[in-house]
Design a protein that fits this description.
Tumour Suppressor Smad4, 2 domains, 305 residues, 6-stranded antiparallel beta sheet, 35% strand, alpha+beta
C-alpha cells in the first residue's frame, strides 16, 4: 500500500499548482517515496480526505498547496482526533501564494528540499489554535496565525489582484488598505488574566511567524510552546504605519513605540466600537465581527519538518 497520501489543491498558487504535478511525481520517484496522489475538487475536500484517512494505511498526509490547503488538512485531522481516531503525521509541499503555514512548520521554499524532508521523515509535535466566532460559532482550527484588523483587509485586497503573483500582492494590498480602510477600533483584549482596552489597527495571534509571505508578525515564535505570540499595533498615524510596514517585513517592529507584544494561551477580543475583521491562516472568520475567542492547544499534531 502507498506509504503517504498527498492531497493537492490544483487551484493553489493562482491556479499554478496543477502545473507542478509532473515535477512532484518525478521527485517522489527520485526519492523512492511510495504515494497516493489525490486532487481536490471543491472547497472542503482536503478536510474531508484528512478527516476520513486511515492512519494505519497512510501514516503520513501531505498538504500540497498553500495556506488554505494546509488549514483544511489540519481541520480534518483535528476532527478525526476529536472523534477518538488515530491520525497521520502532517507534511506540506509549498505550492501556494504566501506559504506562511509551511514557513511556520519550519519548511524551506523549494520543492526538492521539501520532498527530501518527507523522505527523511523527521517528526515533531506542533501546537494548534482554535478560534470561535464569526462564521464559525462551532470553532475553526489554525496552525499559523490569526490576524485581526489590517492584515485581514490586506488579504481581501490581495485576493483581488488576479494577475499578480507572490508576496508583492500583499504589499500592494497593504498600501491600498492603508489609504482606503484605515481605522482602528477600540478593542477589549482578555489575555489569560490580563485585560487591556485599547485601539488596535492590527492584532496578530501567532503560532507561526509570518503573514503574506513577507510580514514577520512574530519573528521569535515557537510552534510547540503552548502559547500564542501576540503582536499588537495600536493606532499609529498613516505615515508611521507605512514605516511600521517596513519594520514588519524585517521583523523589527518591536522597536516601534506603537507596537507591543504579549504571550497568552487564551485570548478574547471584543470590539467596544467599530468591528473586527478576522482571518485564520488566510481563511476569513468574519468581516465585521464583534467578538472572538482563541485558545492554544499544546502539541496536538505531528509534523514532518
Amino acid at each position: 500500500m502507498p506509504a503517504i497520501k498527498i492531497v493537492l489543491n490544483p487551484t493553489a498558487g493562482m491556479n499554478s499548482a496543477k502545473e507542478k504535478i509532473p515535477q512532484i511525481r518525478d521527485l517522489l520517484k527520485k526519492y523512492n517515496i511510495e504515494y497516493d496522489l489525490e486532487i481536490t475538487e471543491r472547497i472542503g475536500h482536503a478536510a474531508d480526505i484528512a478527516e476520513h484517512l486511515d492512519a494505519n494505511v497512510y501514516p503520513v498526509i501531505i498538504a500540497a498547496g498553500g495556506d488554505g490547503t494546509c488549514n483544511e488538512v489540519l481541520n480534518g485531522l483535528m476532527a478525526a482526533k476529536n472523534s477518538g481516531r488515530a491520525i497521520p503525521a502532517m507534511g506540506a509541499l509549498p505550492i501556494g501564494r504566501g506559504n506562511d503555514f509551511h514557513y511556520g512548520m519550519g519548511l524551506p521554499a523549494g520543492l526538492e528540499e521539501n520532498i527530501g524532508i518527507i523522505a527523511r521523515d523527521k517528526r515533531q509535535y506542533m501546537d494548534v489554535g482554535k478560534v470561535i466566532g464569526g462564521i464559525y460559532p462551532q470553532g475553526r482550527y489554525f496552525g499559523n496565525g490569526i490576524g485581526v484588523g489590517f492584515s485581514t483587509i490586506v488579504g481581501f485586497e490581495a485576493a483581488k489582484l488576479k494577475f499578480i503573483h507572490g508576496f508583492i500582492t500583499y504589499v500592494i494590498g497593504a498600501v491600498k488598505t492603508l489609504f482606503l480602510y484605515y481605522r482602528a477600533p477600540m478593542v477589549k483584549m482578555e489575555l489569560d488574566a490580563l485585560v487591556l482596552n485599547q485601539k488596535s489597527i492590527e492584532t496578530s495571534v501567532m503560532i507561526g511567524r509570518r503573514f503574506g509571505g513577507a510580514f514577520f508578525m512574530a519573528p521569535s515564535a515557537v510552534n510547540d510552546d503552548g502559547l500564542f505570540d501576540l503582536c499588537i499595533a495600536n493606532d499609529p498615524p498613516r505615515l508611521e504605519m507605512l514605516k511600521l510596514m517596513g519594520k514588519y517585513m524585517k521583523g523589527t517592529q518591536n522597536s516601534s513605540s506603537f507596537v507591543s507584544t504579549r504571550r497568552a494561551r487564551n485570548v478574547t477580543l471584543t470590539a467596544l466600537d467599530g468591528t473586527l475583521a478576522v482571518h485564520a491562516d488566510g481563511e476569513t472568520i468574519c468581516e465585521k465581527g464583534r467578538s472572538i475567542n482563541i485558545e492554544c492547544f499544546h502539541r496536538q499534531i505531528q509534523i514532518i519538518c
